[in-house]
Amino acid sequence: MEKEVVSKNFIEQIIDKDLEEGHCSTVHTRFPPEPNGYLHIGHAKSIILNAGLAKKYGGKFNLRFDDTNPTKEKTEFVESIKADVEWLGADWEDRLFFASDYFDQMYEGAVKLIKKGKAYVCDLTPDEIREYRGTLKAPGKDSPFRSRSVEENLQLFEDMKNGKCKDGEKVLRAKIDMSSPNINMRDPILYRVARMTHHNTGDKWCIYPMYDFAHPIEDAIEGITHSICTLEFEDHRPLYDWVVKELEYENPPKQIEFAKLYLTNVITGKRYIKKLVEDGIVDGWDDPRLVSIAALKRRGFTPESIRMFVDLVGVSKSNSSVDYAMLEYCIREDLKLKKPRMMAVLDPIKLVIDNYPEGQVEYFEVANNQENPEMGSRKVPFSRELYIDREDFMEEPPKKYFRLFPGNEVRLMNAYFVKCESFVKDETGKVTEIHCTYDPATRSGSGFTERKVKGTIHWVPAEFAVKAEVRLYENIVNEEEGVRNEDGELNLNPNSLTVLKECYLEPALAEAKTYDSFQFVRNGYFCVDAKDSKEGSLVFNRIVSLKSSFKIQK
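^ Glutamine--tRNA ligase, sequence as received from the core. Prediction below:
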């Protein structure tokens, strides 16, 4: 038998070559989030890619927080990110790090650059620095402070560290090339003065390194072999390489860029989500209408479904957008053989079987998942009064309507045939109760009847039903108008959340715990909300409907 050839993505091909040529003996990757917000589905791709490569090559994976900007960073975000990375199955073992752990080494690195004549303290204002930098078409010009002596720069940098300079008064810049075609190499800023309390180091520092200086140092200190990041950092790679070279790190890490994951018609920008939270449009960063990892988890998505999604998207060098329907496809595929199929009535109307004995209760053996016999079965009670969905009855039905209407007979799923005899309306003309008769010879599984009916409807027993709140979701963005309008404001969908307060579920669901998920017959997949559910008061979020617009191309 021929061995199956598995094609490798371009990153794996680079790693294979590096191992072969001795760039490294052990693959070491990392996921380096900034703790300034919750992670979203795009970050999941990076987490799964970095952790997956380390696992595939028998290497190591680090979780490291790039906490170099304390104005936007919070311990809340640190804890949420740790929970998300762990939930996705990325194991950092004992390698949890913070950029701020290395602030002393970064300061020493800056001093080393000054001594080598590769960095200087600059007094230009931010506007002047931008003016001196030049444009994509015109080279920049040297700062008048570029020729300061090493001794003067060392003293001024120490003054910056010791709090003798005002915020923004001075910066430390790399001395590279103001005429470089890559603007990132035109004497970029390495340090700025900023009196801010840091979540990890408190008030120890009043100067903070810039990301482009800090990041390669962090990677080098931790022994990262492959610094895998998204395409917007491609133009920053020469600066990354310059830093590790000038600081003379042995076996410097190699930066590799891949395409970001873009989902159509979703909101991922932290600024926009923050405003939605502050305006009370969503109930937090984990609102199930968002695509933060915490929101997807709360809604009922699984780590397996997200890993399947990332695998389908693949790894490439070209940016592209992916339809949200692909993510929905993945959760359906993951849940369809794992979850029990339960009966739930979301818009209830009472059905009374007039000729069924009062007080009698029968139990029907119902398969938990018809497609997966290994999931076994459960017993569902049946009695005289039931709830069915309002859409399963019509007083005056159109053609080809096969559910209940006066004189018509249907099967109650897993139970008996019933025939509609009459119905009751309230003073507004709304139907409140349906009266039927049943045929005892049609008990499900008995094999006694040869009659056929075209319609089958689901039900729950009124006496034993579990009352619950059910939340139905649509995209929070108005898909027809796009994510943002001309003035940059979000085009929000006013119908993104529908709350159904009076839903009835079959009794087995009384034991459901937070994050438990089920298929509700005909209605989709649902998950017990982890935030608002309480004992005796269940709230279910619809994860996804049963129908999909997405097809896998074979």
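The first strand starts at residue 28 and ends at 31.
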